[in-house]
Amino acid sequence: MTTTQDSTHLELPRTVGIKHPRRGMLHRLRPTFASVIHRRWDLEMRGLENFPTEGPVVVASNHIGFLDGPLMAIVGPRPVHALTKRELFVGPLGTFLHGSGQIPISRDVPDPRALRTALRVLRDGGVAGVFPESTRGSGDMAKAAGGAAYLALVTGAPVVPMSVLGTRLPGSRSSFPPRGTRFALSYGPALTVDAQPWPRRTADIQALTERIRLAIIATADEASQATGMTLPGPLPEADKDEQ
After folding, report:
1. For an engineered disulfide with 188, which of 127, 164, 219, 224 has Cβ 3.0 to 4.6 Å away?
2. CA dihedral defined by 168, 174, 179, 181, rounded to 10 degrees?
3. What are the Cα distances from residue 191, in Å, to 56, 124, 158, 186?
4. Is 91 exposed, middle or buried (0-12, 13-18, 19+ CB in 10 A)?
5. Residues 184, 62: Cα–Cα separation, whole Å
6. What residues does 172 pair with on adjacent strands?
7. Nearest alpha-carbon partner for 18 in 155, 154, 130, 118
8. Under 8 Å between Cβ of 129 and 102
9. Strand 182-187 and strand 159-165: pairing?
10. Which pTM does this prediction carry?
11. What value does the CA radius of gyration of the chain take, rounded to a whole number of Å?
12. Per DSSP, what are the bridge partners of residue 116?
């Protein structure tokens, strides 16, 4: 007997044959990683009530520092399989990223397999994470790519806007902030999205991308006003080759 969840994998773009990313380490690591983060840095979580407790969710965040991905994936209300640049999947870090269920994606060329893997997560009722800015920077969401919108339009998953403050200090390099640095991880109200059948129009993806971009900006602005923290500004020139 085919379940409703299984049948969605037959819809275009098909995700039959696409494996769900690994989940064991991601789930097991959450308490330990959260404990390490809270001991080393001053982490404030905001808007947790905006995060759906079950069902598929797309999380879309600004991106200012190296720790944004781990915070999104492991510290939030639910484990997240985040689309992560393929260049990081080498050596010990690559082993960790694969083991914790993160999804490698090429930033320079279309990567259908990465998107289909994220769709697999969503169709299985999980959470997929996207950084629409595509790379670390000022985090001001001056522009956004359409991946989060596409995933939401295919699946009908709500989009939760997320903002990060503090993981890179103003004018600093993009490495780990000093011990005791204050972080603010904030979630805004979820954007409801109606699933659209294939083919999906470019105009619809662009329109939803703009909604998501503005929602992330609003979430960051609210967090900044509440905490007194600010975005860090552009990456120093020396770091731009490592984005």
Report:
1. 219
2. 0
3. 13, 20, 5, 15
4. exposed
5. 12
6. none
7. 118
8. no
9. antiparallel
10. 0.93
11. 17
12. none
Q: What is the mean pLDDT of the chain?
A: 92
Q: How many residues does the chain have?
A: 243
| CA atoms of 216 and 50, how far apart (whole Å) | 13
Of 118, 143, 122, 128, the residue nearest 62 (C-alpha): 143
Q: What number of CA atoms fall less than 13 Å from residue 153's CA on the CB side?
A: 22
Which long-range contacts link 106-111 to residues 24+ away (Cβ below 8 Å)? 107/134, 107/135, 111/86
Structure-token match 């959470």, residue found: 127
Contacts with 172 (C-beta within 8 Å, 6 or more apart), sequence order: 232, 236
| CA–CA gap between residue 98 and residue 26 (Å, rounded) | 10
Give the burial class of 32: count Cβ atoms within 10 A of its Cβ; 0-12 exposed, 13-18 middle, 19 or more buried.
exposed
The amino acid occupying position 196 is: Q
